[in-house]
Amino acid sequence: MKTVVSIGGSVLVPDLDAGRVAEYADVVESLAAAGHDLGVVVGGGPTAREYIGAARSLGANEGELDQLGIDTTRLNARLLLAALDEDLASPTVPTNYEEAAESLHRDRVVVMGGVVPAQTTDAVSAALAEYVDADQLVFATSVPGVFDADPNEDPDAERYEEMTAGELVELVARGESLGSAGSNAPIDLLAAKVIERSGIEAIVLDGTDPGSVGRAVLDDDFEGTRITPDHD
Ligand SMILES: Nc1ncnc2c1ncn2[C@@H]1O[C@H](COP(=O)(O)OP(=O)(O)OP(=O)(O)O)[C@@H](O)[C@H]1O
Ligand SMILES: O=c1ccn([C@@H]2O[C@H](COP(=O)(O)O)[C@@H](O)[C@H]2O)c(=O)[nH]1
């Protein structure tokens, strides 16, 4: 089984807690031990947002801010790598999908961050899943799934238990503004579109508890949103 796990920076490093990173590394190792070929994509979290905010106030343009965000996601990827068994994971952070696929092909767990400006690691996760023909894609984020409105803004927001990729594209497109570096949404529009075209099965869940990712992948036991391929 080939699995791509997207770990939001907001759940891996809400603050710099080595214990939490170690818990996520344990989950990654347990999935690999269970036979999963694993690609892991790590987000930037609050650190990226702080750097982006500071650089924006210093006059950096959006492309420069995105590059700062990418560097932060790679820093977080390196942090997770530091906690992983060196015999298991590829020691470097790939900067493109070809490198990532090559490492996966050599049976190494791959951990990567951002790739190019003007997107988020949601899109990287979806593109990696598509590139390596993954069987499933798991988004571990700070909210328990995709809602009909931002659950942090609207107390009446309701979670979708299941939705098609096309419905996800519509929902995200409705909510997405022009998109600027460091912006937040459950899954960005590019990621939603890649999920739609590739027909990959995806789930979105609350990754605040790292164990929830393990239970979702190993036992299909999770509360969140299942994104299913569109029917022809
Ligand atoms: N319709 C929606 N459903 C779910 N979450 C939404 C929705 N609209 C906006 N959001 C926001 O999306 C965000 C998704 O989580 P977050 O920004 O923490 O991203 P992440 O991918 O987990 O990590 P990172 O911090 O690396 O970007 C939440 O802050 C939530 O408030
Ligand atoms: O491929 C990528 C990945 C990320 N960015 C920039 O980094 C920040 C942080 O990434 P998150 O996935 O949101 O944690 C993102 O907002 C972008 O500004 C990028 O440009 N390209």
From TrEMBL:
May I ask which residue range the UniProt record assigns to the signal sequence?
none
Under InterPro entries, the record lists: AceGlu_kinase-like_sf, Asp/Glu/Uridylate_kinase, Uridylate_kinase, Uridylate_kinase_arch/spir
Q: Name one GO biological process term.
A: UDP biosynthetic process
Activity regulation statement: Inhibited by UTP.
Reaction(s) catalysed by this chain, per the record, are: UMP + ATP = UDP + ADP
- Location(s), subcellular: Cytoplasm
Its annotated pathway? Answer: Pyrimidine metabolism; CTP biosynthesis via de novo pathway; UDP from UMP (UMPK route): step 1/1
Q: Which SUPFAM superfamilies does this UniProt record tie to the protein?
A: Carbamate kinase-like
Q: Which UniProt keywords apply?
A: ATP-binding, Cytoplasm, Kinase, Nucleotide-binding, Pyrimidine biosynthesis, Transferase
Judging by the UniProt lineage, the source's domain of life is Archaea
Under the GO molecular function aspect, what terms does this record hold?
ATP binding; UMP kinase activity
Q: Which residues bind ATP?
A: G9, S10, G45, R49, T141, F147, D150
Q: Which residues form the Aspartate/glutamate/uridylate kinase domain?
A: 1-206
Instruction: Give the main localization category.
Output: cytoplasm
**Subunit-level organization:** Homohexamer.
Q: What does this protein do?
A: Catalyzes the reversible phosphorylation of UMP to UDP.
Q: Which family does the entry's similarity section mention?
A: Belongs to the UMP kinase family.
Please give the name of this protein: Uridylate kinase
Name the species this protein comes from.
Halapricum hydrolyticum
Quote the gene name from the UniProt entry: pyrH
